[in-house]
Every structure is written in structure tokens, then in C-alpha cells.
Specification:
Layout lengths: L1 E2 L10 E15 L2 H13 L4 H24 L4 E12 L4 E13 L1
Pfam families: YbjQ_1 (PF01906)
Protein name: UPF0145 protein GCM10022218_45620
Organism: Sphingobacterium ginsenosidimutans
């Protein structure tokens, strides 16, 4: 299945719009990640643990979006948008993904 941020897929024609699909994935960051990120914040540099956590969460949200589109009989999802947020004060991260499930000709 193709997931794209564009509204069209070059070389393909959309036959039918099946509806909006969305997914939300929340991942809790643990105290060790918070502590290591604090050191990185103080000394400078990138926080690899948080980067990996965001990457895993983003990939999970896109997999869930794809699964929901497949359940509708879609061949692709167009207009995909990702939103990243922190939830609460405990270091929880949320990635939301939305798009339009379509059937291609």
C-alpha cells in the first residue's frame, strides 16, 4: 500500500475516495531516557533515545493508518499528515496520522 503526503499519485488515477482514516499512537518515555536527555540538554548534542522513540512511534502510527485503510479496501492513502505532541508531564509522546483512503484504477 502506498502512503503519500500528496493529494494525487502520478501515473495513477483515483477511482473512489473511501474516507478519512486516522491513527494515534502514544509512547511513554521512561525515567532513564528522561535523565539521559537531560544530560544531552545540559552538555549539548542530540538525544538518540528520544529520536528512536519518536521514530518508533511514527512508524507505528503509519502502520496503524495503513491497517485501517486496508480494512476499508483501499489501495493507497493520500494527503497523509503527521502530528507530533507530548502528552502530560510524564514524557509521553503522541504521533497522530491522518489521510484519505482511496481505491485506485
Amino acid at each position: 500500500m502506498l502512503l503519500t503526503t500528496t493529494s494525487v499519485i502520478e501515473g495513477h488515477q483515483i477511482e473512489r475516495y473511501l474516507g478519512i482514516v486516522s491513527s494515534e499512537v502514544v509512547l511513554g518515555a521512561n525515567a532513564i531516557k528522561d535523565m539521559m536527555a537531560g544530560f544531552r540538554d545540559f552538555f549539548g548534542g542530540r538525544s538518540n533515545s528520544y529520536e528512536r522513540a519518536f521514530q518508533e512511534t511514527r512508524e507505528a502510527a503509519l502502520r496503524e493508518l495503513e491497517d485501517r485503510a486496508k480494512a476499508l479496501g483501499a489501495d493507497a492513502v493520500v494527503g497523509v499528515r503527521l502530528d507530533f505532541q507530548t502528552v502530560g508531564t510524564g514524557g509521553m509522546m503522541m504521533v497522530g496520522a491522518t489521510g484519505t483512503a482511496v481505491k485506485m484504477k
